[in-house]
Specification:
about 70 residues, mainly beta, 5 strands, globular
């Protein structure tokens, strides 16, 4: 499955949902956000939000520090 993630085309295994994507990318349960085709996906909606070939995603991981 080809997806655009943070502006780069990537080959991924077949991922049915944003939840599958989060698992594949090993996103932490807190401190990350996913935007799918220009729309932010709320974490409670990850399991119900499907992915398809060619989708464009922006994935952000928050980093703390001082």
């Amino acid at each position: 499955m080809r997806l655009w993630i943070n502006g780069r085309e990537r080959e991924a295994p077949i991922l049915g949902t944003v939840e599958d994507l989060a698992r594949w990318l090993e996103l932490p349960p807190f401190g990350s956000a996913v935007e799918l085709n220009g729309q932010v996906v709320r974490r409670p909606d990850y399991a119900a939000t499907g992915l398809k070939e060619g989708d464009r995603l922006e994935v952000v991981r928050l980093v703390g520090g001082g």
